[in-house]
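Duplicate of #3305? Posting structure anyway:
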């Protein structure tokens, strides 16, 4: 037999496994249900602070009720809160204002300082540097690099490609010869480009900044007692035999001293 509610005599569909209640839970004569309804009615009748806001996504006005001490709701609905498409008006305003703000070099430097080295210890920084030295960029050898490599192979000079040293020499000959094969555009050949010429469009670097960086690499390697040889793209294409002679001379020089 089906159990019946002791108040309204209706069949009970769900019986709680702990209490084994003998009432249906929705009956008006149930004292628990009456108390719950009274509490809900009191909450609805209580005066609540309201505030009108505009949704930053869709620009619609909506009413916000005060929760505890603040009006926390920002968006009109869940859809606006989770949608990633920003408002066109606000997007234009922010983009223009931020562009004007970051035109000043002081703000650009401050922003870069805030981001660089954030939450990184000295050990992790050193690990990142070591990992970067092992990466080969660009992945494939260029045309002029292959020309120099073939010339050295013809002369029976053994070499290593992209040694894990500062600046990552294109060719390294043991014990201490670092050969850099510089492209005219990427390293800003001074016979073609002026110092104030802006190179590599997206990076927006001046030619003199590239020269300064290459000079710093040369000085560092020379302090570590490495021989640094740099050759331009135009010189390699014009006379590869002459470049082979210079490298061979440097390679044989320490053997004569010994």
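Output from current build:
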């Amino acid at each position: 037999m089906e159990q019946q509610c002791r108040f309204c005599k209706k069949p009970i569909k769900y019986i709680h496994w702990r209490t084994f209640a003998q009432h249906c839970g929705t009956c008006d004569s149930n004292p628990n249900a009456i108390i719950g309804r009274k509490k809900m009615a009191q909450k609805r009748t209580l005066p609540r602070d309201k505030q009108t806001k505009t949704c930053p996504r869709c620009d619609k006005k909506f009413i916000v009720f005060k929760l505890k001490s603040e009006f926390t709701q920002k968006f009109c609905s869940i859809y606006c809160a989770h949608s990633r498409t920003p408002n066109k008006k606000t997007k234009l305003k922010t983009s223009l204002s931020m562009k004007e703000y970051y035109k000043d070099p002081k703000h650009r430097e401050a922003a870069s300082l805030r981001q660089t080295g954030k939450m990184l210890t000295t050990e992790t920084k050193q690990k990142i540097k070591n990992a970067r030295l092992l990466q080969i960029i660009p992945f494939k050898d260029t045309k002029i690099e292959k020309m120099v490599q073939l010339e050295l192979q013809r002369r029976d000079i053994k070499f290593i490609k992209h040694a894990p040293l500062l600046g990552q020499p294109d060719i390294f000959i043991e014990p201490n010869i670092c050969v850099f094969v510089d492209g005219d555009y990427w390293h800003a050949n001074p016979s073609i480009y002026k110092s104030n010429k802006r190179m590599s469009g997206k990076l927006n670097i001046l030619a003199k900044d590239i020269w300064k960086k290459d000079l710093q690499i040369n000085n560092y390697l020379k302090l570590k007692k490495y021989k640094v040889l740099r050759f331009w793209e135009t010189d390699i294409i014009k006379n590869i035999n002459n470049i082979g002679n210079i490298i061979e001379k440097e390679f044989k020089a320490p053997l004569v001293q010994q």
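Confirmed duplicate; merging threads. The radius of gyration is 38 Å. The mean pLDDT is 78.
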